[in-house]
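I would like you to sit down with the pair of lines that follows and say whether tokens and residues agree.
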Amino acid sequence: MSEVSSAIVSSWSKVQPSLVARQTAMGARRILEVLANADLAPITGHHIRAAEYLMTNKDYCQKFEPQDLTTPISDMFLTAEDDAKVMSHAHRWPFWKALAVVWFRKTKKRRLHLRVAA
């Protein structure tokens, strides 16, 4: 484990104990590394909840790789939160959920290979 990622997990586990309780120390580390690799600063509770939702919800997590999430987070640094505010008001969703959807729309999706029985 790198020095930076261990420092991230140790500092955020004090701030977000519920994240470690819901995920595990390793799961929390993966979520926080995605946000840290996107050079997102400061990392807020909304960012953590949005990334956790995308990386653990069965509807989203199988459609992309965690490292593919860093690109839209860093590319949409300023516009994602504005788009999420509009979406959260329009659909009456929590802000973190709207932010997750905005990030997911821009994330590179994994191709699912379907087998066709002959």
User: Anything to note?
Assistant: The longest helix spans residues 3-15. The chain has seven helices and no strands.
